[in-house]
């Protein structure tokens, strides 16, 4: 076990964990966050995505030791039901989810993508989200929500 | 072989109890379930909340809000919202004032599993009648309070007033807030067949105000901001973390050799749990459990699989199982024979559908707390009561000692009719006396989730001189579709606590045959359900996969219908309409889909093109379990160099009677289209003698953003017809439409799913394999 200080959603948080622990388990079990989800543990589905220093990373294969002193943002860090982030507001507006389990990955990756490309085409959105899996089949609404958030006329 | 085939049917001896493990033979059944006739189920009042108590269904709070209790659960399809709409509508309270309490075995009535798109059609009327009874009771109270007869009262937004003097009013909250109704209603039957308060007249559909509205889902804002608590997020004080280790092949009860020293160096291991062949690890942290599960040295003592290796061998095995002849098949045999003899054209074809996965995004997860003879379970199960009954049976406890509280899980599409993880958690918690959370890995889920079964179809039909279908003979071979549902789960079997359970519900299914819905005078149809070659559970055990059996059956029927249309030189839509004169709703849905898709009348295939990209369109139609009517039209592009099929657009017309929430329904249809395209183009559970080979999202790919089609949907609302299913019904027509579009594009019929580039290229190089004799 070892002590680490993580900068999560703007706050410094201390944890005492095995250094090899994937960041995902630390965020979920030690810091009680629910945004990042366990989907595969293999970096294949994107459900565990968080933003680290402006990039979307797969927290299920990132050891906690690699996240020290890095700014980490989870879905909780974007907004709340009372005060949603514009992307979350757009997803709510478009009702872009069914079971919603994969939506952490969708929103986190869309956030990083829109920060770099504020006016994307449909194809660019599809390319950006291609690695993120959704099994309920909410793809069409997810694209609509991202376009809405980007202010692109749907 | 016959001996082997019969092995599951014979009496098995287990723990001194004689049991009949399985029944597969029997006449071709129209319904989907086929299982041993159990004695009628009589619920013990100590185990079940009484459906005759109005308080079992409704609670009115002091602020006038209403809690509606239902044994149903929301699998991500939005029924929490839709059921609240139904209750709000009947009670005349604002939608925002209705809350749902779902799937708690101690606090809700058992309305049967949430499966088979049965919630709106089954539980909807149950809740509406309960709400109508509640409304009437509140009116009676208001009548006393206001001094006016019930007939003179009206309700707006939960406030009762006198029609002629609206200033005289009283709210539901003031009438009952916080107190119980304490009245009884009539309730007969059980679960899905429960009839609630038939003595009360509910509203006429013309008076519905909340039902029919595209109200936003009550759960999505929380889900999209991580405020929602899913099963894997649920925490209990003192909770430990568990993992279960299983081989990738057959399971028996014989204990494996386990080297406990191999995980000694991992800090935080609480216990290595062994019971029969069940092996699990309990640890203080999740990471310790993960490491221990992957590092544990274990030598499995499992029996060799008797499952034929690979899909061709399984097809051969399926074909050897007996096909029961129903009385009507025998009666029409002579007529069918002479119709074939007279025919101007006869066609025959066989179709192969593979094993497929449900592929939940979140692998199975459950939390259990076993304290003495009391058990509490938090799980995303589709049947909380099923989970309760299984665990009670496993631990030989009264049902009332097991409390199952549903917490929403990842979308599961039928997978969680089996609840292996809950039993795993119970076995581990029981071993350590503390609450344990079990999380399956991705490989656990891909390998051990119950699969949708491999299926085979033989079709033979004859056309008369006018090109109409004179006779259509069909045979379907399949494994049972719902084997893992309600029967002993993996841990229960491995531990030896219950290898099989004669009273288990579910566990059968399949064999409905493959007779088409079309107007054909002679339709002899047979359905064979093959028994498994061995009793030990294998990773190919089955569970209901989004519309069990139906996507395969409809694909086979609708592909063959297209082959007949092509043989008759007719347009596929027109040819169907010719054979649908008796079904007005089906006809209207077909026409609606064709109009929306701007379907151009011509026979298939399309005229050959010299372009590398061949374009085609195809149709698929069905009557889902005699009720909901989906019609899909798919448009595809086939790359003749690479064999890659791209579905560019899917148009769906959908008639499920009264639509409760049109936006929720559109969402479900989107999902059915994506899953249908995915299953048609990409999905196949691969296996050989050593086990399942598709263990993750790389080896078992599903549809991704770059490949999604455009979607357009026509909702046909029929408020005068009771709502039928909307969650899984439209997936059944999508693979058919895609396959017919591929034929239209390339002019060669591929009779295997999925339509991989290899199969397309192979088809392009070879002649059509259809045997036609003129």
Verbal overview:
- The complex is a heterodimer of chains A (154) and B (774).
- The mean pLDDT of chain A is 97.
- By secondary structure, chain A is of the alpha+beta class.
- Chain A is built from six helices and five strands, in the order ββαβββααααα.
- Chain A has helices spanning 23-30, 75-78, 86-93, 103-116, 122-129, 139-150, and strands at 2-8, 11-17, 49-52, 55-58, 71-73.
- The longest helix of chain A is centred in the last third of the chain and has 14 residues, at 103-116.
- In chain A, a hairpin with a 2-residue loop joins strand 3 (49-52) and strand 4.
- Chain A is globular, with a radius of gyration of 15 Å.
- Chain B has 774 residues and is of the alpha+beta class.
- In chain B, the strands form nine sheets. In chain B, strands 13-14-11-20-17-18-19 form a seven-stranded mixed β-sheet, with helices on both faces. Chain B has a five-stranded mixed β-sheet with strand order 23-22-21-16-30, with helices on both faces.
- In chain B, a hairpin with a 2-residue loop joins strand 13 (269-275) and strand 14.
- Chain B is globular.
- The chains are: A alpha+beta (154), B alpha+beta (774).
- Chains A and B meet through helix 1, helix 2, helix 3, helix 4 and helix 5 of A and helix 5, helix 6 and helix 16 of B.
